[in-house]
Here is the input.
Amino acid sequence: MKTLAINSRVELVGPKPSALNLKAYSLQPMAAASRFGRYKPESSHEVRNPITKTKTLIEELRHRRDMLMSIDPEKVKTVVEVYKDLTVFEVLHLARQEGRILVPNFVHDRILTETTDLEDLKQIYVARTGTLAIYEAPDKPFETEVVFSWKHDWVIYSASFKVPQQFQGKRNRALIMNYPDFEILDLGNNKFEIVSVDERSVHQIEHFPKKSGWYKPDEEFRIPRGKQVKESKEARHLWRTKGTYVGLLHRDAANWGNDWRRYVYAVGQLSPTPGVVLF
Here is the structure.
């Protein structure tokens, strides 16, 4: 396993991709045809190095994410793949190894609400998004750390996040990060830590709802916020826990009638995951 560059004291969770027995469900992914293989190579010549620095991996992944968010949602459906039956930890390892993007909630929301024919995407939804949400119980202020625990196969797991100082003491807010602005580190003994690549990449959703229901979403992340409203095409239905949560937002198309496209789930465990969509 590779050690994370941002922190050498722990290792990224998950086996190597070759050991995962991955099954990708491709939706007409972009081809990378070698059009120039028939030409013989030219001799190389020394050139001056560019003044600007080469992009780091994080900068490159952010660029791909921003590009994906700007693409027409009909076209997005042709350039993504869904991986099922992997833990979140394995998915993050795969994304890092292959330079892929976990599709953020904003893009999922556009596909679900701005396209018409979703027959070819039924395999994707149910799926975790690449948007991480962290919140406390209603009216409880953020302290120095948020810890979320869950049980899977009779084993207790926990995920923690150290709250940046500027958010400590704040109430009824959700802290949001889009991949690749976060990583999940294995601390041992079934304990995990969420770390931000850069504190400036941690965003907040003010007036995060205290209970599940219909709300208007914010424009940047398409996450419900503010006062409760009546169901409408412009509103989103939030499912949240009654207490603390640390995990990926989830979009679910299963058996919810015509309004399922507008349900945003801020609940569930980090492991296992029903599927994650990668770009």
Summary: The helical segments are 57-70, 73-76, 88-98, 105-114. The first helix runs from residue 57 to 70.
